[in-house]
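Quick one: structure for this chain?
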Amino acid sequence: MNMAQRLLGHAPSSQEETRWRLLQAATEVFAEVGYRAATTREISRRAEVNLAAIHYHFGDKAELYREVFRLPFLNECNTFATLDLEEVSLSEALRALYIWLFPPEAEADPMLRQFLRLHAREEGDPSGVLGDALVQAFRPNHEKLLALLSREMEVSDVDDDMQRLAFNLVGLATVYLHGGRSAVEAFAPQLLKGVPARETMVERLLEHALVLIAGEKKRRMRMQKEST
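Got it. Here's what it folds into:
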């Protein structure tokens, strides 16, 4: 139940325990063999629960798979999602975002490693069952980032350039986790190895993000002057 305690922020209740055991077992099995080869029988065996428990808690294997992918978006393990934008600085908010997207402890945490393996497997061999589950799970984070940027730009309307900036800021981190991870491991593996290296990466991501935001501010000011 270590995963459940970390993600929930508290030890799971007796009612929650079976559900979390299934989620942990499913994460392991899906990461090891992929969605198609995974069986509910093996998942329930590892969770040490009755096979019918999957149907009771999740309905079917597809919904269990989608629920596993929603785990990293839980507010309890995503500090950025719970920030009060009226109380934090730009740097504090961005650091929280990058710690969530690029957790320094990922390589030392077995469950975080499983999540990374699972996402990489889904990218290389899509299951076809996620649909818009990830999009909907990420939406609150994207909207919070847009709200943060709107605050910094002192605007109320989100335009295309604000959207571009938001996606660019997220992309700074996700390249190390998904599509570009294999290239990083081939060309500069030291960037991903060990907590100190990953902590340094978070700080560099923050610094690069601040430069991008400052550049967009200057561009908007210039455009505003040219239009008057």
